[in-house]
Amino acid sequence: MSNNLENVKFGLIVHSTNNLGDDIQSLASKQYLPHVDYLLDRERLKKYHFKQKVKLIMNGWFMHNVKNWPPSKNIIPLFVSFHLNPNKAQKFLTKESIEYLKRHEPIGCRDFSTQNILEKNGIKSYFSGCLTLTLGYKYKFKKEGKKILIVDIDPEIYKYIPKYILNNSQIKTQEYYSNDFISYIRKFSVKNKIAIGSIAYNKFVEYFGRSSHYYKKRLKQAEIRLKEIATSSLVITSRLHVALPSLAFNIPVIFIHKNIQDPRFSGLLEYLNAFQIEEFKKYSNTIDWENIENPNRDKLQILIKNLVGTCEIFIEKGSVQ
């Protein structure tokens, strides 16, 4: 680490959702940081106040609580792989928010949809792709190539996958509920346990979710999932942040989703073997399961190289004003 970075403070965006994909996005930015001084919850970025400026890679989905936007003036952001939910864009893009984004343009967008929204609001932006595509920058795993990884596919899909593939598969979920949460939920009645999703989880986060211990456990679990992805011979998933890390490690991936036209995917599908559920059911018997390759690999490498360069330049700028 160069001397001029030793005194620079770096933050890492962390999450309190029940989606491990958010933590995988945190790992994607963490690999560029020479050190992590602060763990900053995505939903509380307006509330952080430091004596010294803090540099922060702002990648991922923004955000549930738009009242906590824009971020603290003490945060020096790099906007790359930024995604804005179209359904919340109007509430998100207040006059204050637009002025803030303009101060930090150009904004690197994870998808074409976000780019179009920002440009319509006069904000200079470009398609950067997702930072999880660069997870191979730091994370290195020995290629095992034995097991097939299946993550959160629609139940009806299983009968269209060859039996020999299923027999050699490990089935996982991207939903994250820590042991702390499980212990917490046991205190409730059986009726309340049905609300194990958003309501109960949000209450848990309110009381326990903002400790560094909690965030670090999530990041550790994300690293385990990353290794599972990188050491598989094939990945089949409906989760974007399982599919894109697969590309980072050049693992063949089949992406199957109920709405392949979701704006979140725009600009990214050309690098995936992507199917609508009904389309997969129709064409699954034509797939050469022994020789699956990801499309447009050469073009993807250019996207990855540009992402890496953008992050490296941001980090190496050294001291902040």
Task: Give the structure's gist in a few sentences.
The protein is built from 13 helices and eleven strands. The protein has helices at residues 3-6, 20-30, 89-92, 95-103, 112-120, 163-167, 179-185, 190-193, 198-208, 212-230, 240-248, 277-283, 297-316, and strands at 9-14, 38-41, 54-62, 75-84, 107-109, 125-127, 148-151, 169-172, 234-237, 253-257, 273-276. Helix 2 packs parallel to helix 11.
Provide an overview of this structure.
With 321 residues, the protein is an alpha/beta fold. It has two domains: 3-132 and 303-316; 135-296, no CATH class. 37% of the residues lie in helices and 17% in strands. The chain has 13 helices and eleven strands. The chain has helices spanning 3-6, 20-30, 89-92, 95-103, 112-120, 163-167, 179-185, 190-193, 198-208, 212-230, 240-248, 277-283, 297-316, and strands spanning 9-14, 38-41, 54-62, 75-84, 107-109, 125-127, 148-151, 169-172, 234-237, 253-257, 273-276. A five-stranded parallel beta sheet has the order 8-7-9-10-11. Strand 1 (9-14), helix 2 and strand 2 form a beta-alpha-beta unit. Helix 2 packs across helix 10 (212-230), helix 2 packs parallel to helix 11 and helix 7 packs across helix 9 (198-208). The longest helix is centred in the last third of the chain and has 20 residues, at 297-316. Residues 190-199 have low confidence and may be disordered.
